[in-house]
Amino acid sequence: MDDHLSRLETKVHETIERLQTLRRENAALEQRAADLEQSVNDLRQERDRLQTRLAETSAAAAQIEEYEEKRRIIEQKVGSLLEKLEAMG
Fold first, then answer.
1. Mean pLDDT within 31-40
2. The whole model's pTM is what?
């Protein structure tokens, strides 16, 4: 009988220790999950910021391209006018 009680007591202590270990692991995992959620939120904010910046940069690049095209047209017209002036005189 004492042997059974001793074995039962040992099993109860092992179970309690295992339960405590699992609770610590669970707390650590919950903290890790919270940290990862924060990282995801930070990355989403950074992605949104970069997408905004990309849109702004794309708009600026389109405007620069438009100005470059206008500059080419002006250069061609000035060149044509210079040729005409040189031909006249």
1. 98
2. 0.62
